[in-house]
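Appendix B, example 12.
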Amino acid sequence: LQDIFARRYDAPRNVQLLHPPAQLPHVLSVTKIKYPDHFRQILRVTPYTFDRITAKICTDPVFVNHSHCEQHPVNVQLAVTLYRFGHSGNAAGQSAVARWAGVGHGTVSLMTRRVMTAILRPDFMAEAVRFPTAEEKEAAKSWVEARSCKAWRGAWCLVDGTLIPLYDHPHWYGESYFDRKCNYSLNIQVVSLPNLCIVDFSYGHTGSTHNSSAWDGTQLKRDHDKYMEGDEFVWADSAYPVC
């Protein structure tokens, strides 16, 4: 028994598994340049957006470590994170993503954590998600008027909720994550312009949270008088209250 505890593993652990070549290098060096539409299908963003995000987060201190083992380039870490977020089920598992990227299983989680740490910095969020300027708001109003009527031009933005499914119910208060579609999920509120540019959002709500309640978490709802003027209003479906 002491020998078992000393060795911990009965089976040999020096077996090297043979894996096919990683696809990530080809995606970043070939697909991104020659086939941007395929690149967007794989990582869910355009090459331009991918490069902009990489440039914004590359100087974040989370990507600097004082070790003899250097981190992977920031664009590689971002690609792994986007690929993981763009899939669900087994395809988003560490093993599947690790094989696709040609990295270790634990490295997938490390990369995801680093990228999200950089993206959730207050300064990055303030620059990436902001309310429109006067010119952008007027352009949105003109778009609405051109496709509806003059009386509705004040609706320069729209809000809706989306459910992000979870792999399994959380251990703590798992029943509160059960949504109307019989999945365990998170409720995310998104406010955007007609051109789909996101200007506000709210997160952290369980799947059972009604849209009318999750809507209260948005900055637009909390500071309504600051961002809405005169006859301006927000496009929404019947799940939201009339204010």
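The chain has a mean pLDDT of 92. The beta strands are 157-165, 185-192, 198-206, 234-235.
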